[in-house]
Amino acid sequence: MKVRKGRAVCLLALIQVAGFGLSPVLQAGPVVKVAIPDDYPPFYYRDDNGDFRGVSFEIVEHLLRELGYDVEATQLPSMRTLLAELDAGREDLTVNLTATEERRKVALFTTTPHIVETQDLIVRADSPIRYDGDLEKLKDYRFGAIFGWTYGPAFDNAEDLERVSVNSSSDQLRGLLAGQFDIALNNRQFFQHQARDMGVSRAFRVLAPPVFELPVTIAISRRYPQAEALRDGLNSALDDFLTQPAYRDILERYGFGAVSAAAEAPP
């Protein structure tokens, strides 16, 4: 994958064989501009070579190529920026997003999730906070939430909970360490991965049960010229891909279980 000015470009080139009188045998497909926010392993991230990896990115990249598209991937600094770029039509698609009423104003969403992601409550290791599934019992604490993220209806609709908004997961981890808030909401696998990278893996603990299990879908900008056709094509390609060994291989590589082809994202 070629990287240029912060944009990782995956473009199929024309194949020509000089001296044999052959015409090009492979035409480049239409380009879809794929945006992802800051690294969120194991869902999407850049590896040490600058290439995009992760369970969501690789599944969606496969689907787009199956549909004949080329992928031009860009990493943006935050979810706030990503949603603004989709709204403006400067980016066409993002690989990992759950539909909400506000997001539906910006994008169309696939109906079948390609992965299921949990959102968990995370506290400092020395925190006395306990959780039994009733968020109302935690109303005296401050929650660090990332702008633009959804954490499920139980949290999103809990008006009595005090929220401190941050722009990224790294800001969230640092804010929890610094005591800017008492509880962070994030995916446990990612948060623990990030904490290990920062050398503070023992500084946190995850509370059970999860706040929400999110069916992760693909979001297509409403400003994309053929947004409905692209969404429908991705739906069809995903339903087929969920039954294939290549899909299971991607899941196993990143430590996930399979998603049922019959499962659907919430309306």
From TrEMBL:
Signal peptide region: 1-28
Keyword Repeat: no
UniProt KW Signal keyword: yes
SUPFAM superfamilies: Periplasmic binding protein-like II
Keywords per UniProt: Signal
Superkingdom, natural source: Bacteria
InterPro entries: Solute-binding_3/MltF_N
Domain Solute-binding protein family 3/N-terminal: 31-258
Family membership: Belongs to the bacterial solute-binding protein 3 family.
Name assigned to this protein: Solute-binding protein family 3/N-terminal domain-containing protein
